[in-house]
Amino acid sequence: MDLLDPLLLARWQFGLTTLYHFLFVPLTLGMALTVAIFQTAWFRTGALKWLHLTRFFGKIFLINFAMGVVTGIVQEFQFGMNWSSYSRFVGDVFGAPLAFEGLMAFFFEATFIGPWIFGWDKLPKALHLASIWIATVGAWFSAYFILAANAFMQNPVGYQMSADGGRAEMTDFFAILTNPVALAALPHTLFAAFMMTMGVIISISAWHLLRGQNMEMMRTSLRYGLVGMLVAFGGVALSGDQLSLVMVSTQPMKMAAAEATFNTVCGADASFSIFTLGTPDGTSELFSIRVPYLLSLLSTHSLDGCVEGINDLNAQYTTEMFPQFADQVGGSFAPVLWVTYWSFRWMIGMGSVAALTAVVGMWLTRKKAKRPVPAWAWRLAIWAWPASLVAILVGWVFTEMGRQPWIVFGLMLTEDGVSPLVPGWTVLISLLSFTAIYAVLAVVEFRLILKAAQAGPQPLPGPDDPDPRDLALEDTPTTVY
């Protein structure tokens, strides 16, 4: 292995910066909605606890949003730095949804965050509430346009090849926006983001309740997080089922790689393996725990459906669909199997662990519970956030690694997208530089959020303080801080 291989280093750099940026994206998407819901509860009830919870989680939302902006800008620079061949090939198509994301959705989101931050004592309550809801919708539109751009890499639509065959040209922007992959990925991404956000809320609430701090407000946020986690997990499961159907129809190799299925199987033989040990080529299976019919059900919604195997798909791709690329990939169009197989299971497993934490939490904190919640349960609940975070990160790894060896499915191999004149040592320098800078930013981000989370919301008023329903809007501070 050449350690200065530009392709290898460029892939590592883009993968690391993407995963690091994706640390902030789901929390922004889910926390914006949470803050909007909490402020709506304060607007409707006048209960001061909702105001304090709004400001508390609003501060965490703003810290995360600021860091996401910085890392997102750096990530897009790499298209021109290390992936110029890809940018030239797909720029006419890929640039349109990204332009909409930057010029419309992101500016829309950022514009209304300003009035929400500084408008507490300057805007009418209803208008101030509307600003955070509009910012939330803007964040969701931003996610949609990015997913539409990524969906073209998974399932190219709405394009034609240029006369010289060297560039994809957009012919139907509406087809790009309504790509089946994008439409299926959007709800799955939003539910997953909400699920991760609920993990953060559960972890913070459990930390305070373990120490007996801010009891009333933290009980409220904990209940919200537990219910929200279960709702989000259900949404992830249902939307993931629809996404798998689209994946089977557009990228059958990805589904075959997710199960490491080498030969086409049908019915009971199309089983889903919970855990498997075997040889890399699939010729020998040493140990496996399987659920009969489940892979067929997930892939076709039928108990007697068939799932194409890696060997059959390779033969089809090599001789019929993509013979011009066969020599470049060495006759195998399959991704790295151990990555796709285990990332798919870690995604499901960690998501299930987070949901199980919520189920246990709902039981232990029920109104009819006869015993106080034990300390071990609060400590366990603190891990709801790491579990949900790992689930969403490995899910993104599966999505992108499962597409390999394509950078645009059926049109361009990843090795053909790298910048041809950029030497490996320059990519290595930028990789090390970005990694070091991001490590520093990660420490800053974590310490800021940890400090805000440990400080907690403002305490509720005492018995001699005025009724919160009598507090006028102008009595509130000018910022969420």
Q: How would you portray this structure in words?
A:
By secondary structure, the protein is mainly α. The chain has one domain. Helix content is 67%, strand content 6%. It has 16 helices and eight strands. The strands form four sheets. Strands 1-2 form a two-stranded antiparallel ribbon. A two-stranded antiparallel ribbon has the order 3-6. A two-stranded antiparallel ribbon has the order 4-5. β4 and β5 form a beta hairpin. α9 packs across α12 (337-364). The protein is globular and about 70 Å long. 41% of the residues are buried. Residues 467-481 have low confidence and may be disordered.
- What class do helices, strands and sheet pairing give? mainly alpha
Largest sheet data: 2 strands, antiparallel
Strand content: 5-15%
For the residues shown, what is the average pLDDT? 81
Count of extended strands: 8
- The helix fraction, in percent, is 55-70%
Tags for this model:
481 residues; mainly alpha; 16 helices
Secondary structure elements and pairings:
Layout: H1 6-21, H2 25-45, H3 48-81, H4 84-118, H5 125-154, E1 159-161, E2 168-170, H6 173-177, H7 180-210, H8 215-250, H9 252-259, E3 265-266, E4 272-278, E5 285-291, H10 294-300, E6 306-307, H11 310-321, H12 337-364, H13 375-381, H14 384-401, E7 406-408, E8 412-413, H15 414-417, H16 424-455
Antiparallel strand pairs: 1-2, 3-6, 4-5, 7-8
Helix pairs in contact: 1-3, 1-16, 2-3, 2-5, 2-7, 3-16, 4-5, 5-7, 7-8, 7-13, 7-14, 8-9, 8-12, 9-12, 12-14
